[in-house]
Amino acid sequence: MVKVMASKLRDVELITDTGIRLGWVYDLSFDEETGDILVIVAEPDEDLDTSEFVTDHEGLLLVPVSAVKSVGEVIIIDSNKLAVKSKLRRTGAVKSRILGESRSPGE
């Protein structure tokens, strides 16, 4: 397994395996108890319609780390595993796990 420093991921572009430019890595969200990375927090591409994607209260994309196919000069995201709102409506438990503490009060 190749180790990648989190600091090297800042501003790396996220692209789906179908060629959609999602945006750029802004931060990572960790599980405090296990240390596992849960989501990549990304600044969305200016041309991306974020209305169907899971975002935090600041409008940043929340991309589950389980959707990452590869990391290199860009991060390739499996579009079938990308969290979108229509999928999450059917699975409320998943939404809670992905959004975690990034949810704004009252949501």
UniProtKB/TrEMBL annotation:
Gene3D superfamilies assigned to the protein according to its UniProt record, in alphabetical order: PRC-barrel domain
Pfam families: PRC (PF05239)
Protein name: Photosystem reaction center subunit H
Top-level division of the source organism's lineage: Archaea
Cross-referenced PANTHER family: PRC-BARREL DOMAIN PROTEIN, PRC-BARREL DOMAIN-CONTAINING PROTEIN
Domain PRC-barrel positions: 6-81
Phylogenetic classification of the source organism: Archaea, Methanobacteriati, Methanobacteriota, Thermococci, Thermococcales
InterPro entries: PRC-brl_dom, PRC_barrel-like_sf
